[in-house]
Amino acid sequence: MNIFTSENVNTLVVGGAFMAIVLFISFFRNVESKRLRQKLGEGNILLSNYRVHFYGVESVPGIPFNSIGALGLSAEGMYYCSRILKRELFIPGSKFSSLSVTDDFKGKNMYGNVVIFNFINEKGEKDRAAFRIPYPERWSTAIRKVFKNIKS
């Protein structure tokens, strides 16, 4: 029996492409997990999400950008690392002031709800960071439980 007939070759190509996509996704998920564990500590991660869209912080001038990466929560704070670029953001838990859900950021319509984290930046000024997070209510509940200083 010859498995390389024209019908089987098409099936093998589609199957190979599917496997390549799965391997590609798991490779990036592994890289993101490793970066979260390095920053927050092996057993300190309370909640994490992958494929989080980060739109930037308000103190940085310009329009919102769209960076995809991983978001992790620990007792010390919240850490975001982008998938490909070297964008990172760490917000210490003591610096959170409130969180909200809105559909605009930096005066631009985000075409869907984003979670806004209000915090005090390194300069001691009020700042905001915008994320599109899968299951935002889970994050809202966890952050309010971990950091008691959060206002609605």
Across the major sheet, the strand order is 4-3-2-1-7-6-5
Order of helices and strands: HEEEEEEEH
Total DSSP E strands:
7
User: What is the helical fraction, as a range of percent?
Assistant: 25-40%
Average pLDDT, rounded to a whole number, is: 88
Strand portion: 35-45%
Structural class by sheet pairing and helices = alpha+beta
CATH architecture: Roll
Q: How many individual domains? A: 1
DSSP helical segment count: 2
What can you tell me about this protein's structure?
- It is a single chain.
- The chain is an alpha+beta fold.
- It has helices at 6-40, 136-146; strands spanning 47-57, 67-73, 77-82, 88-92, 96-105, 108-120, 126-132.
- The chain has a seven-stranded antiparallel β-sheet with strand order 4-3-2-1-7-6-5.
- The model has no long low-confidence stretch (mean pLDDT 88).
Attribute tags:
7 strands, about 150 residues, 2 helices, alpha+beta, PH-domain like, single chain, 7-stranded antiparallel β-sheet
Summarize the entry for a quick read:
By secondary structure, the protein is an alpha+beta fold. The protein contains two helices and seven strands, in the order αβββββββα.
